[in-house]
Amino acid sequence: MPHKSLPSPSWPISFRATCLRATLYILLVAGIAQGVFYESLYLPDTRFSEHGFTELAQSALLAAGAGLLLYSHLVIRTLPYISLLMFGFLFASLIREQDALLDTYLFDGAWQLLVSLTVLPILFVVIRKRQCFLAEFAAYSNSFSFGLFAAGFLTTYVFSRLYGRGDFWQAILQENYVRDFKSAAEEVVELFGYAVLLIAVIELVLLARRWALARQNG
Q1: Using CA atoms, how far apart are residues 62 and 195, in angstroms rounded to an integer?
Q2: Where are the transmembrane segments (predicted)?
Q3: pTM tops 0.85, yes or no
């Protein structure tokens, strides 16, 4: 069955709606930053641990993003293969964030198995429908959502890993080095990256809805 063509990503958006979304995104990022601030000041026993605000917020952002992508895939269905692949990526990241809990309550290495069970079937479907996927990607790659997703990916999976290297912080702090500095730097940057990924997913859902309406209206 041939893949339906998608509308141009430049489908008009009202200035008021754009300002509203921008305000909500600012509040989201500010709320996250404030949560990290309070965690640092008032929750010394759990800060930057598996039970601290930062780690829990990371999981919440990933869960929200994965849920929205599943909704886009199952309900809107304008970008079914893009949303499915991105869902697999975020859901695998969510599983990875629970590695300590899974190792404790299931078995050592449980997260690797669960990630494989999530990612491999999705990759199989996307590769099998690669022509449809490439058609979707050609339209989606020019969107604001894709730019945000790329920025969130680079922030979380590239920059935070390099920025959080222990040797780097030991060289800066020298005799004042404490592992908490390194953990805070890496986890907070990672948290911001997840926030950007969630915003990218929200923009994808809104874009998919606009394209679905455009298709219905001819």
Answers
A1: 8
A2: 20-41, 53-71, 78-95, 110-127, 139-159, 191-208
A3: yes
